[in-house]
């Protein structure tokens, strides 16, 4: 395909940047999905934001399950293409897509069957908030299979050096979401006013459109998708290999989300407005980590192909180049969140009584943005080598420490701000420890 970039030859920085920019743009588009929802839902009330915040945790948890198929598929397709094994790459791609379909359908059924106890975990205060949270959960997670497929398609195409298709598909979904959000939330024209349910329907419909765009875009791709044979029976040995690669990152993501759910439950003790602040604040904060995640995906594919081709020196250079870029981005995000918290937060929740909490959240979490960017990019580089365990161990250990640290800090005069500081301190240590670990052990002979 013309969109594919040669990651094995030529200058490192231009190749890496050409691959990374569409991925970063895709991440910004995905962030815009969430921010668009928050802007319109925030116009309903902070209670509506709290409902979406609680239910949205399970969409976040779903992302961890998706990693099983996405990470394994992306890494193994990259390794196979780097080694010139296109038939193997096709097999890994097919099984990754099949695995994502199975996982997406299973997760959706579970969320539909257990929506009440799942939302009940957060101990929300208002019956209206609880009801809206259950509705949002049933719609978004009940039809989460589209999100699963989209992420796996993105991973496979990125491993092939094609990040442009993912950007175009995601951008198409964003346009649909931007149009449908106000129409379905507030009932414009012939459409009824659906409030939170309208935001959920808009999101799911947009994700379905993205899936359709992916299917239409890849149907003539000559290297992998034309020979995919999707209805072939899944290969158990290939599935095991995909799960072996993806499991540490998947467990890491799910535990990370699980810890965040516990933190959200603690936050709920300060009122539903505090839950809304956490939701909006995390979406604003995503301007740094989702962009870094995009660059991490690029360096993942770059390292995977070059490591598969036996070119460790080029893989190292790709990591160094990517770190320079994300560190600059992290510094920029830190400055923005610390200096301009009030006008940014007011875009999403204009209620004056909620603003001080939002400002405190953004300023405290702003301190950690540089280190978060380091962590995410280094984790992507590790997984490009097929080694997802080291970053997972670091992340799980330090993320788990947030709970006792949060409980300790909220008993001090810091109160609710102590919870935000526990998250910030954890992120700083994760970035420092993981970067040091990569420099020490990534390209040792044993890793090959």
Notable traits:
MdtK-like, transport, 448 residues, Probable multidrug resistance protein NorM, 17 helices, cell membrane, MATE_fam, mainly alpha
Shape: globular
Radius of gyration: 21 Å
Query: What's the number of structural domains?
Result: 1
SSE pattern, N- to C-terminal: HHHHHHHHHHHHHHHHH
Count the strands? 0
Poorly predicted spans: none
Cα distance, first to last residue?
A: 30 Å
Global structural class? mainly alpha
Counting DSSP H or I runs of 4 or more residues, the number of helices is: 17
Quick one: biggest sheet? none
What is the overall pLDDT average?
86
Helix content: over 70%
Portion in beta strands: under 5%
Your description of this structure?
- This protein is mostly helical and about 450 residues long.
- The chain has one domain (about 10-440).
- Helices cover about 80% and strands about 0% of the residues.
- α3 runs antiparallel to α6.
- The longest helix is centred in the N-terminal third of the chain and has 37 residues, at about 45-80.
- The two termini are about 30 Å apart.
- The model has no long low-confidence stretch (mean pLDDT about 85).
- This is Probable multidrug resistance protein NorM.
- One of its GO terms (biological process) is monoatomic ion transport.
- Belongs to the multi antimicrobial extrusion (MATE) (TC 2.A.66.1) family.
- GO terms for molecular function: antiporter activity; xenobiotic transmembrane transporter activity.
What is shown here, in short?
It holds the Pfam family MatE. By secondary structure, the protein is mainly α. It has 17 helices and no strands.
């Amino acid at each position: 395909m013309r969109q594919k970039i040669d990651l094995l030859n030529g200058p490192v920085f231009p190749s890496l940047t050409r691959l990374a920019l569409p991925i970063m743009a895709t991440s910004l588009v995905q962030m815009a999905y969430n921010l668009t929802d928050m802007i319109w839902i925030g116009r309903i009330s902070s209670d509506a934001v709290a409902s979406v915040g609680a239910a949205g945790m399970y969409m976040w948890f779903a992302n961890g399950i998706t990693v099983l198929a996405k990470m394994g598929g992306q890494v193994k397709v990259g390794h196979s293409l780097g080694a010139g094994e296109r038939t193997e790459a096709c097999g890994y791609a097919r099984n990754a897509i099949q695995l994502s379909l199975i996982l997406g359908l299973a997760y959706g059924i579970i969320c539909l069957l257990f929506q009440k106890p799942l939302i009940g975990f957060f101990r929300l205060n208002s019956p209206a908030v609880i009801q809206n949270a259950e509705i949002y959960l049933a719609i978004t997670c009940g039809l989460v299979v589209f999100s699963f497929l989209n992420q796996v398609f993105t991973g496979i195409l990125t491993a092939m050096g094609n990040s442009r298709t993912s950007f175009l598909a995601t951008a198409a979904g964003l346009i649909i979401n931007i149009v449908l959000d106000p129409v379905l939330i507030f009932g414009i024209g012939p459409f009824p006013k659906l409030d939170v349910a309208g935001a959920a329907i808009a999101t799911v419909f947009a994700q379905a459109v993205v899936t359709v765009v992916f299917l239409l875009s890849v149907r003539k791709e000559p290297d992998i998708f034309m020979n995919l044979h999707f209805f072939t029976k899944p290969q158990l040995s290939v599935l095991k290999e995909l799960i072996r690669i993806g499991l540490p990152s998947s467990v890491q993501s799910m535990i990370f989300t699980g810890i965040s759910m516990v933190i959200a439950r603690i936050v709920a003790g300060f009122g539903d407005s505090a839950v809304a602040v956490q939701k909006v604040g995390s979406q604003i904060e995503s301007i740094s980590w989702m962009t870094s995640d995009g660059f991490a995906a690029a360096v993942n594919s770059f390292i995977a192909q070059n490591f598969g081709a036996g070119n460790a020196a080029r893989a190292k250079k790709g990591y160094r180049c990517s770190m320079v870029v994300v560190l600059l981005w992290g510094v920029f995000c830190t400055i923005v969140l610390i200096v301009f918290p009030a006008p940014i937060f007011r875009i999403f929740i204009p209620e004056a009584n909620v603003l001080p909490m939002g400002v405190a959240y953004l300023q405290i979490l702003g301190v950690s943005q540089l280190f978060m960017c380091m962590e995410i990019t280094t984790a992507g580089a590790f997984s490009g080598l097929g080694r997802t365990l080291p970053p997972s161990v670091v992340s799980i250990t330090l993320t788990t420490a947030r709970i006792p640290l949060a409980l300790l800090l909220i008993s001090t005069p810091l109160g609710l701000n102590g919870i935000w500081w526990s998250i910030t301190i954890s992120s700083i240590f994760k970035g420092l420890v993981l970067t040091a670990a990569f420099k020490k052990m990534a390209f040792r002979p044993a890793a090959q």
